[in-house]
Amino acid sequence: HMQAQATGIDIGQLKGSGPQGAILLRDLPSRTEQHVEKTRPTETAQPASSMRQAISEAMTRSKQTIPHYYLTMDIDLTNAQHWLAEQNQSREPEQRLLLPALLISAIARLLPRYPALNGTFINGRLTPSDTVNIGNTISLRQGGLVVPAILNANTLTVDETMAVLRDLTERSRRGRLRSSEISEATITVTS
């Protein structure tokens, strides 16, 4: 998508040859491939930090041993955005609520109704969890991702969820997460 934008191509006019009609580089006109090749940055391999190595190993193990379910849907968030705007009207910028906090809070409240979606999968067995610990993907400034858990998320208000998200983001980027925050997610939400 970025390569097409960089060369001014309207991807809405292209037919994708990838899975489910995804547009691949080979679907773009040849002049785009030449442009991409010329502008591709050079990369040098960097040794992984111990935290990044542990995250990589855990995510690989997770993909290999745990059934993954993906749900994608379009949701009209107009009312949610109006509610957030109203809530944020009198708040200082650093105290404002963001949409991810509202969505995580809603998911945390709904999960107890669907115990098969909330738990751990160990040795081929699903163990539903009484607690809702929502893993949230955080992008690290030096590159990579980490997925710390918002522990007991179903007991938090939207404001408390936002405070935890801010804290986890800051500590993730400083490499200061607790082991329980890395290892105890019972479900993961990504944006």
Automatic annotation (TrEMBL):
InterPro entries: 2-oxoacid_DH_actylTfrase, 2-oxoacid_DH_E2_comp, CAT-like_dom_sf. The keyword Mitochondrion does not apply. One of its GO terms (molecular function) is lipoic acid binding. The keyword Acyltransferase applies. Keywords: Acyltransferase, Transferase. Its cofactor is (R)-lipoate. GO terms for cellular component: cytoplasm. Residues 28-41 have a biased composition (Basic and acidic residues). It holds the Pfam family 2-oxoacid_dh. Residues 28-50 are annotated as: Disordered. SUPFAM superfamilies: CoA-dependent acyltransferases (SSF52777). This is 2-oxo acid dehydrogenase subunit E2. It comes from Photobacterium frigidiphilum.
